[in-house]
């Protein structure tokens, strides 16, 4: 039963990972319409890469684009929170399953 439950949790985790990746990519795609990434370069040696961020400006101030980006961020936040719960749940069950198998089959911690 425990193995079947773990398999079910792993499938749900994989489904949630797909949503995580989908909304992560969608958020990045939407950000390309709004931000000049020259100001946000993670280049060599410094996260700031020598830029003055107080001079950074949006490349679009279109209200609809800004709202769509905010919506993406909001949904992504929820997806990440649920994905984190799924990871913890699956990891906890995996630990329990390992202990159960070790106990039932008298295995060492090798």
Helix content: 55-70%
Report the principal-axis shape.
elongated
- What value does the average pLDDT take? 87
Structural classification: mainly alpha
State the major sheet: none
Question: Radius of gyration in whole Å, from Cα?
Answer: 21 Å
Elements, N to C (H/E): HH
Q: Give the oligomer, counting copies of the same chain as homo and different chains as hetero.
A: single chain
Distance between the termini: 24 Å
Number of E strands? 0
Report the portion of residues in β strands: under 5%
User: How many H/I helical runs?
Assistant: 2
Uncertain parts: none
Describe the model.
With 110 residues, the protein is an all-alpha fold. The chain is 65% helix and 0% strand. It has two helices and no strands.
The gist of it:
The protein is an all-alpha fold and 110 residues long. The protein has two helices and no strands. The protein has helices spanning 2-31, 63-104.
Output the keywords.
110 residues, mainly alpha, 2 helices
Please describe the topology of this protein:
Blueprint (H helix, E strand, L loop, with lengths): L1 H30 L31 H42 L6
Helix pairs in contact: 1-2
């Amino acid at each position: 039963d425990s193995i079947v439950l773990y398999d079910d949790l792993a499938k749900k985790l994989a489904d949630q990972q797909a949503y995580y990746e989908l909304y992560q990519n969608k958020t990045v795609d939407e950000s390309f319409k709004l931000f000049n990434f020259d100001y946000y370069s993670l280049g060599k040696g410094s996260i700031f890469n020598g830029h003055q961020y107080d001079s950074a400006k949006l490349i679009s101030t279109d209200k609809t684009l800004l709202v769509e980006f905010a919506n993406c961020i909001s949904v992504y936040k929820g997806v990440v929170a649920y994905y984190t719960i799924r990871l913890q749940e699956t990891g906890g069950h995996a630990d329990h399953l390992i202990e159960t198998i070790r106990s039932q089959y008298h295995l060492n911690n090798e």
